[in-house]
């Protein structure tokens, strides 16, 4: 993909200055990416489901027709700049992408990255194409700031530094506040501050770091409540040998006891509750930085020394195993503290001569020098999985090289919150490329998340990602020079590259897919070592695995970061109100790959829609259950399954992994201690755990959780209360006495007939009648009975697409040619009738999923490669939807038709109306499985959030609880 300009000049006859030659990946010379897609205008109106209040409204925003309404809503509300209802407000995706991409291109030109102007243009088109088609996304600060008049902050992750002086401590408060104000997060290590067991120079006793944490926590809570775009995100780290380590470990656990007592006394202690501010330390994630010496002492059951901050002498000895027990006990009670493995982190450090790595960002994926920052970007893995179920490793590498180039260019023009952070970032140029949708990719390819095959595929992909990134970094170093701190750290940096390469050699592939990716990664690492030996490297670090919360929705990802699928059944809102549940569309693809027939797959999908899991699904082999394991629910992945997946990919990351290991409510303190111990032995850099229902300030602020209600009912039954049995039955929605109908004459294989369809006032199908000429009274009677049965079922709420899926492709005579231009061939009369009904009454997305298109759509596909009509086509009949509490409509679509489409839009017979009490996938999982989802309520739109790495993300508005 890259050559020096000397090679470029021979090929193009261009100038001979140095620079990158950019290869086309997706684009065509002379054609702008915008001209290859169909654009449409949508209205975005976002509401809080609790209050009904409109919290956002912008009409006529322009997006590609293949972007979901959820993606376009989140981008419109989060990333469009300019005041609403002013000419300065951005009104479409083109403006947003151009604002960002053109800034990158200009900076690339100004700083000598491109060999020729043609290369700069190709870079612009390829970057635009990849963003337009949701192949990757930059982190949120890029979309917030780049190309605006505001400071162009591009980093989401910051690490600060604090010393043992009051000036430094007060400076910490100030720096952290500015970072929170900009919507980012920061972490730092407080271990330099003297403990409360040591003396000050004046002779008094020091306050200790825990006391200063109170002030920082209050500052973070105040700035959050002052109107920042999301909750303040921060990480506080303390070394395990600090004399105040036990006080630090127990801080949040003690506050959790206080929260429970206040809750029981009637105070509102849910996250965001009116009384939660009365407790301390709730705005930070806490982590203990352990070293190998301590972990060996835990294994051996020996004592461990706590050391003075002033002279390093041991001032107290503690039982290491007992201290680990206290860490695990606190995590059992309130999920804090997590663990960071100091010696492992610094063994993979490329810049040890410039200082140790002492801390991380709030989500624990970025680990580097103090006073530094990192900008992130993530690739959408499903975009590289072809229709033939092969992963395009070569294209994946090219896109990774393109993205890492852009990320490095951004440092050239970026602004930073402090001078020290700016200097360190420009000197070391830390980047954090990563990916999203791993869980969906594994399921689509028939791999269990907790399986050797799944881990081999994940390891191979991660190795290729980092290898491609460092390869490009070495190539850029030959053009614009290595990072400023490279000369001092050259030996260490090259040593870490060889460690990555050796880890790649140890991957044991199991299938053709991961084998081809691993071969590509091996070539990339060979180039990294070879080119890096000559040029050095442009970047001190290249890769991390971030939560990908908001940007995951922007890319329409099913899963975030390294996470498995959250649940098999998703919740989505429909246009004009209403909602539905839909089985993850990755499941039918996985079932087909595993060899199941269409009929068996339909039965399995229907079972999943009803139960929310695959246990005892009809026809599904037990050995395939693992493919459909999820983060929560009946087939939840075991805690060590998460740890093993993290261990599989960690050797191929410059940084670490944002991820929480979920444990059941029944987990013991000893099990948490074992997870922490296994994380150290498996070579992780950091680990956090969460035991279900261990915190009060979590999901149930609305008091309406179905899972909570189910638990209360079970407790009441156990106490001898009479069990209340509620039987649910469908209600018949009768047609009005006078209703609109249409009659279609048709001929199938020479047999002539008439199809009459009647509709409700809103245009939804409610009845059909079939009449045949010259076929005899017996067939006529059967058709009458069939028509009545279908009509009554439709009026009781059976979705039309259920019948379409069941009766299309049904084979019997008469069959053959028809006189309908949209359905030229039919396998039977039933096949024709339900294809015709699908074309007349189902939205485009649903019937397109089933392969049913009009003649015009088939013609358009031959001409443009897309069946989808443009926004100006008269026959447009979409039913777009959102996962959010969003009402969003298209300009060209009648509102009445939109509101009538409650039961369609999925392309699956499993689609059904969602319960009125359900407002997100987290609540839907609770409804189906009677299991509480440990997640907070979104403070913006009131929806229950779901996990994304170490953070939480809202399906409704894209808000996150963390730093990405």
TrEMBL record:
Main EC class the enzyme belongs to: oxidoreductase
Domain spans labelled Ribonucleotide reductase class II vitamin B12-dependent N-terminal: 44-134
Chain residue ranges for the region called Disordered: 860-926
EC number: 1.17.4.1
Keywords recorded for this protein, A-Z: Cobalamin, Cobalt, Disulfide bond, DNA synthesis, Nucleotide-binding, Oxidoreductase
Biased amino acid composition, Acidic residues: 872-882
Domain annotation TSCPD: ranges: 736-840
Cofactor(s) it depends on: adenosylcob(III)alamin
Segments forming domain Ribonucleotide reductase large subunit C-terminal: 155-690
UniProt-listed InterPro entries: RdRp_reductase_class-2, RNR_2_N, RNR_lg_C, RNR_NrdJ/NrdZ, TSCPD_dom
Biased composition (Basic and acidic residues): 890-900
Function text: Catalyzes the reduction of ribonucleotides to deoxyribonucleotides. May function to provide a pool of deoxyribonucleotide precursors for DNA repair during oxygen limitation and/or for immediate growth after restoration of oxygen.
Family indicated by similarity: Belongs to the ribonucleoside diphosphate reductase class-2 family.
Name of this protein: Vitamin B12-dependent ribonucleotide reductase
Source organism (scientific name): Janibacter cremeus
Organism phylogeny: Bacteria, Bacillati, Actinomycetota, Actinomycetes, Micrococcales
């Amino acid at each position: 993909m890259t050559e020096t300009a000397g090679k470029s000049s021979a090929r193009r006859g261009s100038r001979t200055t140095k620079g990158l030659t950019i290869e086309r990946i997706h684009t065509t010379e002379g054609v702008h990416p915008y001209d290859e897609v169909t654009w449409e205008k949508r209205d975005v109106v976002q509401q809080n489901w609790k209050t009904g209040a409109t919290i956002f409204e912008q009409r006529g925003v322009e997006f590609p027709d293949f972007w979901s309404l959820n993606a376009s809503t989140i981008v419109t509300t989060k990333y469009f700049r300019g005041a609403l209802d002013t000419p300065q407000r951005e009104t479409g995706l083109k403006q947003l992408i151009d604002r960002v991409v053109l800034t990158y291109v200009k900076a690339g030109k100004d700083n000598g990255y491109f060999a020729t102007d043609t290369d700069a243009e190709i870079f612009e088109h390829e970057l635009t194409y990849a963003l337009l088609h949701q192949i990757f996304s930059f982190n949120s600060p890029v979309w917030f700031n780049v190309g605006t008049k505001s400071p162009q902050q591009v980093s989401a992750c910051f690490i600060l530094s604090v010393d043992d002086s009051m000036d430094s401590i007060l400076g910490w408060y100030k720096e952290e506040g500015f970072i929170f104000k900009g919507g980012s997060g920061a972490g730092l290590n407080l271990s330099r501050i003297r403990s409360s067991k040591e003396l000050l120079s004046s002779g008094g006793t020091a306050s200790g770091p825990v006391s200063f944490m109170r002030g920082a926590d209050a500052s973070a809570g105040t700035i959050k409540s002052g109107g920042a775009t999301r909750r303040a995100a921060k990480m506080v780290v303390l070394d395990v040998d600090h004399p105040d380590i036990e006080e630090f470990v127990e801080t949040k656990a003690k506050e959790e006891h206080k929260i429970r007592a206040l809750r029981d006394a009637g105070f509102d202690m849910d996250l965001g509750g009116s009384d939660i501010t009365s407790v301390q330390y709730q705005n930070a994630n806490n982590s203990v930085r352990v070293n190998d010496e301590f972990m060996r002492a835990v294994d051996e059951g020996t004592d461990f020394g706590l050391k003075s901050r002033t002279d390093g002498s041991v001032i107290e000895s503690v039982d290491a195993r007992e201290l680990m027990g206290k860490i695990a006990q606190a995590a059992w009670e309130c999920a804090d503290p997590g663990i960071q493995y100091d010696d492992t982190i610094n063994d993979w450090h490329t810049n040890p001569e410039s200082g140790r790595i002492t801390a991380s960002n709030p989500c624990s994926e970025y680990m580097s020098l103090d006073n530094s920052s990192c900008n992130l970007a993530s690739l959408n893995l499903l975009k590289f999985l072809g229709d033939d179920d092969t992963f395009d490793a070569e294209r994946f590498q090219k896109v990774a090289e393109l993205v890492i180039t852009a990320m490095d260019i951004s440092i050239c023009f970026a602004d930073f919150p402090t001078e020290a952070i700016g200097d360190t970032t420009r000197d070391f140029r830390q980047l954090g490329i990563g990916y999203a949708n791993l869980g969906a990719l594994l399921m689509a390819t028939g791999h269990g998340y907790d399986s050797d095959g799944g881990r081999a595929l994940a390891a191979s992909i991660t190795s290729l990602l980092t290898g491609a990134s460092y390869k490009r970094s070495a190539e850029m170093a030959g053009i614009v020079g290595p990072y400023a701190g490279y000369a001092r750290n050259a030996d260490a940096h090259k040593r870490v590259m060889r460690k990555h390469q050796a880890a790649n050699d140890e991957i044991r592939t199991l299938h053709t897919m991961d084998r081809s990716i691993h071969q590509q990664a091996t070539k990339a690492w060979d180039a990294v070592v070879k080119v890096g030996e000559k040029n050095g490297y442009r970047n001190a670090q290249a890769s991390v695995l971030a939560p990908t919360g908001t940007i995951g929705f922007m890319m329409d990802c099913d899963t975030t970061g390294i996470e498995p699928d959250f649940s098999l059944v998703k919740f989505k809102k429909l246009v004009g109100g209403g909602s539905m549940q839909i089985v993850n569309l990755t499941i039918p693809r996985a079932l087909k790959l595993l060899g199941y027939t269409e009929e068996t797959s339909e039965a399995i999908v229907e079972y999943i829609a009803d139960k929310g899991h695959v246990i005892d699904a009809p026809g599904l082999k037990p050995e395939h259950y693992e493919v459909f394991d999820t983060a929560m629910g009946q087939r939840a992945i075991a805690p060590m399954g998460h740890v093993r997946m993290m261990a599989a990919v960690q050797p191929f990351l410059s940084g670490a992994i944002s991820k929480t290991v979920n444990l059941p409510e029944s987990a013991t303190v000893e099990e948490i201690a074992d997870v922490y111990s296994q994380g150290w032995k498996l070579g992780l850099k950091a680990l956090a755990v969460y035991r279900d229902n261990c915190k009060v300030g979590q999901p149930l602020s609305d008091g309406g959780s179905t899972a909570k209600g189910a638990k209360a009912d079970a407790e009441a039954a156990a106490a001898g209360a009479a069990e209340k049995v509620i039987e649910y039955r469908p209600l018949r929605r009768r047609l009005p006495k006078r209703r609109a109908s249409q009659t279609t004459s048709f001929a199938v294989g020479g047999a002539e007939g008439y199809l009459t369809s009647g509709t409700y006032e809103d245009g939804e199908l409610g009845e059909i009648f079939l009449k045949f000429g010259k076929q005899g009274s017996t067939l006529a009677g059967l058709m009458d009975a069939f028509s009545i049965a279908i009509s009554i079922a439709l009026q009781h709420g059976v979705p039309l697409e259920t019948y379409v899926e069941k009766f299309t492709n049904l084979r019997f005579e008469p069959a053959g040619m028809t006189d309908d231009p949209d359905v030229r061939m039919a396998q039977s009369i039933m096949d024709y009738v339900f294809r015709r009904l699908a074309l007349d009454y189902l939205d485009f997305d649903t019937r397109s999923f089933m392969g049913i298109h009009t003649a015009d759509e088939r013609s358009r596909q031959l001409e443009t490669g897309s069946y989808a009509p443009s926004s100006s086509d008269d026959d447009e009949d979409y039913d777009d939807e959102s996962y959010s509490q969003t009402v969003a409509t298209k300009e060209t679509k009648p509102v009445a038709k939109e509101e009538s489409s409650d039961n369609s839009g999925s392309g699956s017979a499993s689609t059904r109306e969602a319960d009125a009490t359900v407002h997100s996938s987290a609540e839907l999982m609770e409804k189906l499985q009677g299991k509480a989802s440990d997640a907070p309520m979104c403070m913006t739109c009131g929806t229950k959030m779901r996990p994304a790495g170490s953070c939480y993300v809202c399906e409704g508005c894209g808000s996150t609880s963390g730093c990405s």
